[in-house]
Structure formats: structure tokens, C-alpha cells
Amino acid sequence: MATAAEEDQTPSYSIFLGCTGAASAIIFTSLGASYGTAVSGIGISRMAATKPELIMKAIIPVVMSGIIAIYGLVIAVLIVGSINEDYTLQKSFVHLGAGLSVGLPGLTAGIAIGIAGDAGVRGTAEQPRLFVGMILILIFAEVLALYGLIVAVYLYTKI
Fold first, then answer.
1. Domains, the chain, with CATH or none
2. pTM value surpassing 0.85
């Protein structure tokens, strides 16, 4: 039989909060990745109609969007793997914060990659020297999601 002090540390909703953190991590990063893939894919399709030889160079935004979902997957798996019968309220709040820390930047980075990738791919079809600039912009958008992953890993390891 658990004592009153033990029951105060593990309320019934602590697992819900931890699972919400894991869900936030994978849902928001997947939304960002899918948006970035879809919008960049539209630009690639439009560009491929006029310059089919540039298709392989043009898939870079799609690949970078897909990486964002991996960030969320890593954190979600870590969070779910640590949920057990000794799961405290403190752990659940930290895991919720970790999930949101990777999920929301992943969503916004995916949106940024989609918009910049679409415009960059179409612009590169007209002016090939724009390619390097497009890559730099995509890297800066991707690094926002990477910052979220770093914060999430740091939060996860603090417990």
C-alpha cells in the first residue's frame, strides 16, 4: 500500500502529461515536416516542368523537412521509454516541456523550409546562382528545429 507522500508524487494524471509531451513532440514535428515537404514539392513540380535536369538538386528542401520529424521521433521515444510506475509529477512536467520544446520549433522550421524551399527552387530554375543562397536559408531554418532538439534533450536529461 502506498503512503500519502508517495501518492502525492505520482498523481494519476502524471502519465497523461508525459504522454502529451511525447505526442506533442511527434505531432508538431511531423506537421512541420509534412508542410515543408508539400510546399517544397509544389515548387519542385513547377520547376521540373521547365528544367527537369535540376530535379535532384531541388529535393534538398524535402530532405531537410523530413529530418525535422526525426527530431520529434527521438524525443517521443525517449519520453515514452521513461514512463513507468515510478513516474512522478515533476518528470511529467519536464517531459511535457521537452516535447513542446522540440515540437513547436519543428513546426515553425518546417513551415519556413517549405516557404523558402518553394521560392528557392523556383528561383534557382531561373537563376542558378541563387542555389547557394537557398541552401543557406534552408540551413538557418533547419537549425531552429535543431535548437529545439537540443533544449529538449537537455530537459530530458535533467531528471
1. 26-157 (1.20.120.610)
2. yes
